[in-house]
Amino acid sequence: MPLTTRRKCGGQGSRLMAVTLREVAQAAGVSTAAVSKVLHGRGGSVRVSEERAVQIRKIAENLEYRPNAVARNLRSSRTHTVGLIFENFWNISGGPLYYLHLLDGIASPLFRSHYRLTILPEIAQDDILASLGDGQLEGVIWCKLPRDPETIDQIGRCPIPIVAMSTPPTAEPSSAVFVSCDNEGGAELAVEHLWSLGHRKILFLRESEESSTPDCVARMDGLARALSRRGSRLDPEDVATWSWGLSEFGSWWDSTPPHTAVLCWSESAAGRLLSQARAHGVDVPGRLSVVGFDSTQYCETTTPTLTAVKQPIFDMARHASETLLSMIRGNRPKYQATTFPCTLDVRGSTAPPSAREEEKS
Amino acid sequence: MPLTTRRKCGGQGSRLMAVTLREVAQAAGVSTAAVSKVLHGRGGSVRVSEERAVQIRKIAENLEYRPNAVARNLRSSRTHTVGLIFENFWNISGGPLYYLHLLDGIASPLFRSHYRLTILPEIAQDDILASLGDGQLEGVIWCKLPRDPETIDQIGRCPIPIVAMSTPPTAEPSSAVFVSCDNEGGAELAVEHLWSLGHRKILFLRESEESSTPDCVARMDGLARALSRRGSRLDPEDVATWSWGLSEFGSWWDSTPPHTAVLCWSESAAGRLLSQARAHGVDVPGRLSVVGFDSTQYCETTTPTLTAVKQPIFDMARHASETLLSMIRGNRPKYQATTFPCTLDVRGSTAPPSAREEEKS
DNA sequence: CAGCAGTGATTAATGGATTTATCATAGCCC
DNA sequence: GGGCTATGATAAATCCATTAATCACTGCTG
């Protein structure tokens, strides 16, 4: 009988069916156990003579045998796959570069350990929760973990480890591990900088859609706290919830607001604010200082360059990924929540507020 | 016996083992076939009375039964998973936004069809080729498909469909389907624009690492062809291969080159060129016109805003993804290669070259 | 010679869901 | 009663790789 017999796959079109272990075994006249032992060396008490081994290897190569990973996964209950969940591609905190650093930081340790990264469809949450228990994932990194009690409860009974990249909830305990940055501390840094320059009224710019994200809230809280620590405070008029295009900028500026500086909740918002300011002939930083959140390469390319709070997103993501791998290996996580400190990159978009009332020397 | 008995998983730590179909069947006192039929409705000749069905559903819910997707995948030879391969996160053509559009375009149709997207480790190519045949993926989208004959040969014998997002090879036939944009046409558009403004000497800026990508080569070829069509040509001195930081800009400019415009192979290179020009006090577009490749949101935020060739990357990615899904469903692809046209977004970084020799009125 | 160790191999169970083939039983008609 | 259909349900095979249990045989020792 010819060794190269190949069957067609009945189901889908006319693709070739893969060669199985059994076929190699039949062709070689040995048992599947022997073939498995020779090709993958895993069988415990199975023993094969060197002579046979050479023969089997040769036949397997001729037949172009490729082990079926799905069958292996089923047998071993391991898939070497980690899932990634986020709300959507665009809604991720600071913008594309932030996102890219995130993905890079998550993927690096995984790939090094020969794990794959699967992006889960951001469909119904029920589907997400179902796929956490379907055996296809060994662990999950979840950006913006939901905080409703029911979901938290379900997450607690999830059979695989979860690492959340979001601010840990203050009240509810959770079985997930949290990795985040010190958003409040970052806001404090921004205020410290602006305050030392002489700014006393700061506008916090958030965006309507994202107004409820914990990150955004934490940054605003940090701002409020930093101000109160200096004997000032954050009034309702100091918080702007503008649309994506920031078309409200013009009327805001024309109303001669008391603010001399703006703290933007994200990098992309800060970038758009610079565009709007330029469009309305408002000199930054001469007439208005701007601080963004998430300091990336793009803060260097804007005009003026952008002063921004930097969260070590790559390190955070890498830490999350490494923690997850460790948990998958059966270790208990060292910390239930890890918070990374922020830093401030001072660039060209901040200056003393003098220009508004009097000419600075 | 208690219905809620749960075994511990022996292998990894102390995670709960999942409830299996067999356990539900035992608890309900019926066969696994009946449970499978009731819960998933797939069994052909299996019939269950409505009375039993209600009972089974209730028990399954109490036991929190979750079907094991790996076992299903093995049985059905389908995983509802598509792989994505690219060289690395950062080396993708035009920069982060390009990449984000790419990912978004690929993911949208997949998610809509309840497919997952798995990012493959960019490890050894042998590993990649092996994982194409391991049964875990139903199809693959491969950015920058390798072009060496041996790999092409292996790809031809790959059991799953492949869609390549790169310029199709001119010589070698390939079994993969190609989706790309008309890079040459894009370069032609750029030249047309610059030529009409009066530019006659154009520098092509590429980067050392990426110098060999087909996209980059095609753009340069397009430039050369566009010039020759106008009775000019692309000399070796008209091609710059600078480092990532473009630190060579200063010495190049000081050598008073004949060029009045630069065509950059990517968006990010164009952005960095603007930074360098500003750092050296070179007025853009007054003294130097700049055209980038890949027109994205960030071209709006630079100063000046950036004139750029736009490739419809989202549409390309979506098309690639939809084509792959169609092939997975067993359809023959309509086209072996699809090329999308580029357009030119004229913004603020291009102007007549007058400033160099004489003052323009 | 019983007993033991070592070598070379196979058989059958396992993992969990799906499906074909088969088996009962009841009801109905001629 | 024999033959037929419809209903309700199950046993066993299948997908493919892995592995514990087992077997046959040789050679050696006490």
List the helices and strands and how they pair.
2 copies of one chain form a homodimer.
Chain A: H1 21-28, H2 32-40, H3 50-62, H4 69-76, E1 81-85, H5 96-112, E2 116-119, H6 125-132, E3 139-143, H7 149-156, E4 162-165, E5 177-181, H8 183-197, E6 202-207, H9 214-229, E7 239-242, H10 249-254, E8 261-264, H11 267-279, E9 289-293, H12 298-301, E10 307-310, H13 313-328, E11 337-340, E12 343-345
Parallel strand pairs in A: 1-2, 1-3, 3-4, 4-5, 5-11, 6-7, 6-8, 8-9, 9-10
Antiparallel strand pairs in A: 10-12
Helix pairs in contact in A: 1-2, 1-3, 2-3, 5-13, 8-9
The structure holds a DNA duplex (30 and 30 nucleotides).
Which CATH class of the largest domain in chain A applies here? Alpha Beta
Largest contact between chains = A-B, 64 and 65 residues
Oligomer kind: homodimer
Describe the biggest sheet of chain A? 6 strands, parallel
* Rg over alpha carbons of chain A: 28 Å
- Unreliable runs of chain A: 1-14, 355-361
β-strand number of chain A: 12
Strand share of the residues of chain A? 5-15%
Specify the number of helices of chain A.
Answer: 13
* H/E element order of chain A: HHHHEHEHEHEEHEHEHEHEHEHEE
Kindly give the count of domains of chain A: 3
The CATH topology of the largest domain in chain A corresponds to: Rossmann fold
- For the largest sheet of chain A, list the strands in their spatial order: 2-1-3-4-5-11
